[in-house]
Amino acid sequence: MPTSLVLERKGELSLRDLPLEQRMGPADVRIAVRTVGICGSDVHYYTHGKIGPFVVNAPMVLGHEAAGTVVEVGAEVRHLKPGDRVCMEPGIPNPASRAAKMGIYNVDPDVTFWATPPVHGCLTPHVVHPAAYTYRLPDNVSFAEGAMVEPFAIGMQAALRARIQPGDVGMVVGAGPIGMMTALAALAGGCARVYVADLAQPKLDIIGAYPGIETINIRGIPAADAIAEATGGWGADVVFECSGAAPAILGLPKLARPGGAVVLVGMPVDPVPVDIVGLQAKELRLETVFRYANVYDRAIALIASGKVDLKPLISLTVPFADSIAAFDRAAEGRETDVKIQIELPA
Ligand SMILES: [Zn+2]
């Protein structure tokens, strides 16, 4: 039995053997996992034992941001072969579902998603996955970058929802990993420049190092004042809420230009007040994002083209044997850490 990183219960991780159901179907591939990013949700299950209605009631393998190498393909698989380097989309919809038929498989009520109880994740040596949700990495895209596709896909989904037009001014509230991914996707999606607001200067320094990104430290100036100053009082064309913070959400209408768009990406833990009249007075278009659908190919293409470089966001890479220490560090939430990745033996 393989050794996996197992969340035994809230606050308790172990590296141990856990029997996993890994039967291959004809449309599946078996993948030797190589690199896995630690996500805020993994850490939240570790520290809180639940996210909303999803409660860890039994030992669960963590991890959903993965890249690896195909080692076996099912009889019906045509586009992949053993030896291919790949990354995997962690959500598996029911292909016959109404949502999947509509192309919105991310909101399929039947979707199963890695490391969302009771579904096991990918911090284990091998996974079996539908080939349709497994994507070949171009030679110039590393495993580490491949494991960044999952969080970047959320930024891609946000950029698509925003319906960016060339030359738009973007604004991202919150410089966590998803805020950073969203800012980069918005730039790649056509924004002339993107302003990123946060109160943690180390985070702003990391994302502000990218050309086209300007930063706003809201300890020094309210985000609304800063964006007004930057846009002659007009506001940003597209605003991405990536903080999940109640005061930020209340202040969103002030950031957008009349007729602009607001995209809700961050997830507040509890319901929060929204300034509806503020939204109405500018006829703002409100969009929401839940994970992503049909963006992996685009995300990989942008990374391979060099238009999006996610490597500076990989703060630390640790060997699988040190996974628990890596989770403890991620739980510290250091302001200089964006993405911590775990590397399994080749
Ligand atoms: Zn993630």
Automatic annotation (TrEMBL):
Domain spans labelled Enoyl reductase (ER): 11-336
Organism name: Paracoccus tibetensis
Residues annotated as signal peptide: none
Coiled coil regions, renumbered to chain: none
Keywords: Metal-binding, Oxidoreductase, Zinc
Name listed for the protein in its UniProt record: D-xylulose reductase
Record's keyword annotation contains Protease: no
Family: Belongs to the zinc-containing alcohol dehydrogenase family.
Cofactor needs: Zn(2+)
Molecular function GO terms recorded: oxidoreductase activity, acting on the CH-OH group of donors, NAD or NADP as acceptor; zinc ion binding
Keyword Oxidoreductase on entry: yes
SMART domains: PKS_ER
InterPro entries: ADH-like_C (IPR013149), ADH-like_N (IPR013154), ADH_Zn_CS (IPR002328), ER (IPR020843), GroES-like_sf (IPR011032), NAD(P)-bd_dom_sf (IPR036291), SDH-like (IPR045306)
Domain of life, per lineage: Bacteria
